[in-house]
Amino acid sequence: MDFGVLGDLNWIAVIIAGLAYYALGALWYAQPVFGRAWQQSMGWEPPADYRPAPTMYLVPLVTCLVTAIAIGMLAEGTTTDTFAEGIVLGLVVGIGIAATGLFVTGFFDPLKPKPMTTTSINAGYQVVGILIAAIIISIWT
Predict the structure, then answer these.
(1) How far apart are CA 93 and CA 90, in angstroms?
(2) What DSSP letter does each residue of 6-75 carry, written as one string?
(3) What is the pLDDT of residues 116-128, one digit of tens each?
(4) Cα-Cα-Cα-Cα dihedral of 103, 14, 9, 130, to 10°?
(5) Which end of the chain has fewer beta carbons closer than 10 Å to its terminal beta carbon, N or C?
(6) What percent of the chain clears pLDDT 70, i.e. is strictly above it?
């Protein structure tokens, strides 16, 4: 595989997959879902008047789109083009790369009150988001 595969991608599928991945984060880290537990696990209590900077939204958006591009490249390179193959690709990338990397980092993070809770919430988001992106890209290929 080379970067020429970028020309073969279904860019609409890649963009929609990246946006779906990003939207999942808005839901995943919402207070009623995992947001409160995530904040407590890090020992972070935002002030009542806290307003995140625009980069708090832009950086995750860019990273979700870049991940969707990488998944698209992998799907193209492995000829992944069915729902079932999308699940396999999503689980391989989500668990095999994203979650394992996060767990190593979390394991060596003594500064958070509950580092493995933080890591589990973050890794769960990555696995589910990558799985959704891989399925979208695979079925639209």
Answers:
(1) 5
(2) GGGS-HHHHHHHHHHHHHHHHHHTSIIIIIHHHHHHHT----TT----THHHHHHHHHHHHHHHHHHHHH
(3) 999 999 999 999 9
(4) 20
(5) N
(6) 100
pLDDT tens digit sequence for 3-30: 888 999 999 999 999 999 999 999 999 9
Predicted TM-score (pTM) of the model is: 0.94
Q: Residues 94, 123: contact at Cβ < 8 Å?
A: no
73 in Cβ contact with 9 (< 8 Å): yes
Q: Give the Cβ contact number of residue 26 at 10 Å.
A: 12
CA-based angle 10:134:98, to the nearest 5? 130
Strand (E) or helix (H) holding 118: helix 115-139
In whole angstroms, give the CA distance from residue 15 to residue 29.
21
Q: Pull the structure tokens for residue 122.
A: 């973050």
